[in-house]
Write a structure and sequence with these properties.
By secondary structure, the chain is mainly alpha-helical. The chain has 12 helices and 5 strands.
Length: about 350
């Protein structure tokens, strides 16, 4: 669902007796922040403790030992993944009706995604989109709806892919973990039910606008929801495939994909830019009993170079070009579209 932003405020009197606006449920926001910081602190502690035990020369040797065909296959999948993600905002264009060209929209999405991976969602996914789209003539309301729909597309696919992976191909967890494959199957089934419920809502509502706490949510038609599903599921499976090739296919693909999906959520929860260290910590925790630690970290180091750093270099060049093009467009069409 694409979103239209609003504000939820409550009034409280100030010292003069006049009502003063304040955010509703402010205490809950503080609880979530404290919980997030505590989780972040625990992850950082585990990462630092683990880093002291790593033989980094062995890690570098593992990177050099990755066969060239595996590197090329990983590079191809990473390229396809970035290209596919760059089409997400085209669905937002369909939902909002703005008239920016396909190449322009894909360029903005690619730049935002590359900076999002390396610098975090607020800087990349949000700030870059607002800056570039506003300079290209879109109004804030339209940008918010495009951004919201793109995020929905991304996480809709995550729920379905993670649900299928956990439910039908549950990973073999470390022996000392208390959760077993049965618990993963239940979690997977719950995630799949959420995905099915979203598709059912789109089939029933048919482009209906919902208002929930001053937020307007646009339900896409079913055909757009199915496109969301195909595009996002394809992207998540491609990302898992990059790491699978870099691990030289030593583990079943569903296992690598499932661990990657767990790491992706852990990175979001901790708010670490690029999930730096979080990805590695999750893979070590879940797979170190099956793959040597040096080989795991070598594959993940190569993954960061291929999927994060190379696209960032390209995106930086795209950003300069987009800024220059936006400057020219502003001279010819200065009136923003809302």
């Amino acid at each position: 669902m694409a979103t239209r932003s609003g504000s939820a405020m409550s009034a409280a009197p100030d010292s003069s007796g006049q009502p003063q606006a304040r955010p509703a449920h402010a205490w809950w926001q503080w609880v979530k922040r404290i919980a997030a910081w505590l989780f972040f602190a625990v992850v950082v502690f585990l990462i630092v403790r683990q880093a002291r035990t790593i033989d980094w020369s062995d890690v570098l040797d593992s990177v050099r030992a990755i066969p060239l065909p595996m590197l090329l296959a990983a590079l191809l999948l990473a390229t396809c993944s970035h290209a596919l993600y760059s089409t997400y905002d085209l669905l937002g264009r369909r939902m909002t009706g703005h008239t920016l060209g396909t190449g322009t929209v894909m360029g903005v999405t690619f730049v935002s995604y590359a900076f999002n991976l390396n610098l975090g969602a607020l800087v990349g996914g949000v700030a870059f989109r607002y800056r570039l789209y506003s300079r290209l003539g879109l109004g804030n309301n339209t940008i918010t709806r495009v951004l919201g729909f793109s995020m929905l597309t991304n996480w809709f696919g995550y729920f379905v892919v993670a649900g299928a992976a956990f439910c039908f191909w549950p990973m073999a967890l470390p022996p000392d973990w208390r959760i077993d494959s049965g618990g993963l199957r239940i979690l997977g089934a719950a995630l799949l039910l959420v995905g099915v419920a979203y598709l059912a809502l789109c089939a029933i509502a048919r482009e209906h606008t919902w208002r929930i706490r001053n937020q307007e949510l646009d339900t896409p038609p079913l055909r757009i929801a199915l496109l969301q599903l195909a595009m996002s599921c394809g992207n998540w499976t491609l990302m898992g495939g990059v790491i699978w090739f870099l691990l030289q296919q030593q583990l079943p693909y569903p296992t690598v994909l499932a661990v990657f999906l767990v790491a992706a959520v852990a990175g979001v929860i901790t708010h670490v830019p690029g999930g730096l260290g979080v990805l590695e910590a999750v893979f070590i925790a879940l797979l170190a009993h099956r793959v040597p630690q040096g080989k795991l970290l070598g594959a993940l180091l190569a993954y960061r170079a291929i999927y994060y750093l190379l696209p960032l270099i390209v995106a930086s060049l795209f950003y300069v070009v987009t800024e220059l093009r936006a400057k020219r467009l502003r001279k010819t069409a200065p009136t923003p579209r809302t």
